[in-house]
Design goal:
Number of helices: 14
CATH topology of one domain: Aspartate Aminotransferase, domain 2
Shape: globular
Helix content: 25-40%
CATH class of one domain: Alpha Beta
Strand content: 15-25%
CATH superfamily of one domain: Type I PLP-dependent aspartate aminotransferase-like (Major domain)
Structural class: alpha/beta
Strand order of the largest sheet: 4-10-9-8-7-5-6
Distance between the termini: 37 Å
Number of strands: 16
Length: 437
């Protein structure tokens, strides 16, 4: 470690609370595409993408130029005080892009957690009900309400209670570890039909404002429900007047091969949430939903000082242009096919890989100590991540047992970055678990 890194680490220790976690000890000097360079000049291949933020890559020239141009004209006025065109233009664009053949409106905010919080507010006002249904393994944020909606206790909730009331949690569709002991498709989506029983055992349907679901669970382990699951849930929600909310904060903006992951489930959610890669590195989020639902709150009931900041709006509009001009949805699908093929090949020779899953390039390896018992290999997964970082690959684990490795590489990753990154990952798996078969 250089003197520069050591000095920065000491300054960080003195000034930043220990509760702020860090994947590595590196300090970034610059970044481009799918490569990060630290203050010591060491390059890291990035399979984290700012935790799903950099789908168009680090410092995409079009995004940088849009930010520079907007910053020279207007940094902030607060949309509630003096409006500006980029807010309206982005709202229009998002209404056109999100699934749903119905009139929509969009609210712009700063973060994923803000989007979730405001979606719940809107649903409660629109229905006159207070209850919210979420799922085991879900992650929705770290604020009081979103932390209450998040499933995992440590480190997200431990010692931070009491929590927000009227949050109800049901088992999710985790086929690899089915809570009902069934197998798809012979199960006939019993996990979705459980929602009707949930209304009897936990919360009456008449008290529930919304059901909030991730199309692919992010922090929970990149869990993908089987085909038909969300369709069934949506039908049950519609039957009982419950608003169906798709939390696409991590899955949206091309991460799964389509602009929004619910497109692959054939579902048009009443409300769709997006953030992360929408801003290409700048903080922005959105709640996009049916116009009549979005209009439920009274004037002044929605907003915030920085929500839909003009510079962030300009960045988001540039991101959406790049997605179109560079055909990144097509590239995303090709990237997903390529990486899945590699992972499935590894699974044939490495018994530590219990399951390969995901949508598009939002892929995961669930690591196990034994394929028969499916005992989670949490400590080993952590060791694999540490080895990857040592070798120059940034990678994150997830899942309630910390035994799932996930890929969130920028969609613009070069062939060389992808090949080297995958080679480091396999090498690290072999070093931790052995050669396999």
């Amino acid at each position: 470690m250089s003197n520069a890194s050591a000095s920065l680490l000491e300054r960080r220790r003195q000034a930043v609370p220990r509760g702020v976690s860090n994947l590595s000890g590196c300090f970034v000097q610059s970044a481009s595409g799918a490569t990060i360079t630290d203050v010591d000049g060491r390059a890291f291949i990035d399979f984290v993408g700012g935790i799903g933020v950099n789908n168009v890559g680090h410092c995409h020239p079009s995004v940088v130029e849009a930010v520079r141009e907007q910053a020279g004209r207007l940094l902030h006025s607060c949309f509630h005080v003096a409006m500006y065109e980029p807010y309206v233009a982005l709202a229009e664009k998002l209404c056109a892009l999100t699934p749903g053949g119905f009139a929509k409106k969009a609210l712009l905010l700063n973060s994923g957690a803000e989007a979730v919080e405001n979606a719940v507010k809107i649903c409660r006002k629109a229905t006159g009900r207070m209850g919210v249904v979420v799922f085991e393994n879900a992650f929705h944020g770290r604020t009081l309400l979103t932390m209450s909606m998040t499933s995992k206790v440590k480190p997200y909730k431990f010692g931070f209670g009491p929590f927000a009331p009227e949050i109800y949690r049901m088992p999710n569709a985790y086929c690899y570890r089915c809570s009902l002991g069934k197998t798809y498709p012979s199960c006939n989506l019993a996990c979705a039909d459980r929602l009707e029983q949930f209304f009897i055992d936990h919360a009456a349907a008449e008290t529930l404002a919304c059901l909030v679901a991730e199309p692919v669970m992010g922090e929970g382990g990149f869990i993908v429900p089987p085909p038909g699951y969300f369709k069934r849930l949506q039908e049950i929600c519609a039957k009982h007047g419950i608003i169906f909310v798709a939390d696409e904060i991590q899955t949206g903006i091309g991460r799964t091969g389509t602009m929004f992951a619910m497109e692959q489930h054939g579902v048009e959610a009443d409300i769709t949430l997006t953030a992360k890669s929408l801003g290409g590195g700048l903080p922005i989020s959105a709640v996009v939903g049916k116009a009549e639902i979005m209009d439920a709150p009274e004037v002044g009931g929605l907003g915030g000082t920085y929500g839909g900041n003009p510079v962030s709006c300009a960045a988001a509009l540039a991101v959406l242009r790049v997605m179109d001009e560079e055909k990144l949805l097509e590239r995303s699908r090709g990237l997903g096919d390529r990486v899945r093929g590699v992972f499935e090949g590894w699974a044939k020779e490495l018994p530590c890989i219990g399951e390969v899953r995901g949508l598009g390039p939002m892929l995961a390896l669930e690591l196990v100590l034994d394929r028969e018992t499916r005992a989670p290999a949490g400590k080993e997964a952590k060791a694999v991540v540490a080895k990857c970082v040592e070798k120059g690959l940034l990678l994150l684990s997830c899942g309630h047992h910390g035994n799932v490795l996930r890929t969130l590489m920028p969609l613009v990753a070069s062939e060389d970055e992808l090949t080297r990154g995958l080679a480091i990952l396999k090498e690290s798996l072999v070093e931790v678990f052995g050669q396999g078969r």
